[in-house]
Design brief:
The protein is α+β, with helices and mostly antiparallel strands. It is 46% helix and 26% strand. The radius of gyration is 49 Å and the shape is rod-shaped.
Length: 337
């Protein structure tokens, strides 16, 4: 081959390479591996007690709100009966205070006031008579017509009459105050205290009713029971898990793509998950793009791949048919904008 022919061949090869570079278009999708994950909930009761019944087994499917276990509530029901009785007593006490005095009690108090006033009036009349006698005897004594003993006896009667007047007046005042209290009724502070006792009883009843309701353990989400953590007959403390439920209906896959491709991925765009079983794949949606870069997880096979700077992408799918299982390896095909 001549030098001229070789030069022409090299020039043609360079031109073809340049044309190939100009016609090369960027990739329209990326394919990355990941694992399936799902929401895992450990179901527990807010109260403690003996486990009477466990209605599910591992592998059973449960719906949200479905009863799955029952705790003993005998002690709580007895406490509820006592709380209701105490509440009824507090309610009766409040109604008694609001009703005020009975009519017969008012009539009796009014009669006691009248009797005390009459006694006071009589004592005052006796005092007036004793004072008149004392004055008369003192006049007679000055005129040497009476004896000192008569005068002293009269003075003693005056002192006794004054004491009777004071005692009668005190009884009359006490009777009047008692009548005023009956007419006025209970003090506002007493009524407030009775209402507070009634409210405390209502709160105690509500607490015990909630404890009884919480003894029935229900599934917080729909899913598959993957683990049984307690057996019938065990004494469980509050918030101790009974079973584990995994919501496989709303599974997702975490995948990792290289940093240069992240700007071409958008939230809400379509993606497809492929399992090792093959087939058309499962349609999904990109629901999360990590705002921070990280190195490829250690479970990636090669050291070269582990050294790359990547972003985590979450692809959510509708898995109500149960194709995907928790921890299953998958590949995601994500179109690039």
């Amino acid at each position: 081959m001549s030098k001229q022919t070789l030069s022409l061949a090299l020039a043609l090869a360079a031109a073809l390479a340049a044309a190939a570079c100009r016609n090369h278009e960027p990739a329209t999708s990326v394919r990355a591996s990941g694992t399936v994950e799902a929401t895992e909930v450990q179901v527990a009761a807010l109260v403690g007690g003996r486990l009477l019944e466990l209605k599910v087994a591992e592998g059973d499917r449960v719906e949200a709100g479905q009863p799955i276990a029952l705790l003993d509530t005998a002690d709580a029901r007895l406490a509820l009966q006592r709380a209701r009785a105490e509440r009824a007593q507090a309610d009766a006490q409040l109604r008694l205070l609001l009703a005020g005095a009975r009519p017969e009690d008012l009539r009796q108090a009014e009669a006691q006031v009248r009797a005390a006033e009459a006694e006071t009036a009589g004592a005052r009349e006796d005092l007036a008579g004793a004072e008149a006698d004392l004055q008369r005897f003192e006049t007679l004594l000055k005129n040497d017509s009476g004896s000192r003993k008569q005068r002293d006896d009269s003075a003693t009667r005056v002192e006794v009459a004054r004491a009777r007047v004071g005692a009668a007046a005190e009884r009359s005042r006490a009777a009047s105050e008692a009548l005023a209290r009956l007419r006025k009724g209970a003090r506002s502070q007493e009524i407030d205290a009775a209402r507070a006792r009634l409210d405390a009883g209502d709160a105690q009843i509500a607490t015990l009713e909630k404890s009884i309701a919480d003894a029935t353990i229900t599934a917080p989400v729909a899913g598959i029971v993957t683990q049984k953590l307690a057996d019938v007959g065990e004494i469980l403390a509050p918030r101790v898990p009974v079973v584990t439920v995994v919501d496989l209906d709303h599974a997702w896959a975490n995948i990792y793509i290289d940093e240069p491709l992240v700007p071409r991925v958008r939230l809400g765009q379509a993606a497809t998950l492929h399992t090792d079983a093959g087939g058309a794949g499962i349609k999904g949606t990109v629901t999360f793009v990590s705002p921070r870069a990280e190195f490829t997880p250690r479970n990636v096979q090669t050291a070269e791949e582990r050294s790359k700077l990547v972003y985590r992408i979450k692809v959510s799918v509708d898995n109500r048919e149960g194709v995907l299982k928790q921890g299953m390896p998958v590949e995601a095909e994500v179109p690039l904008g």
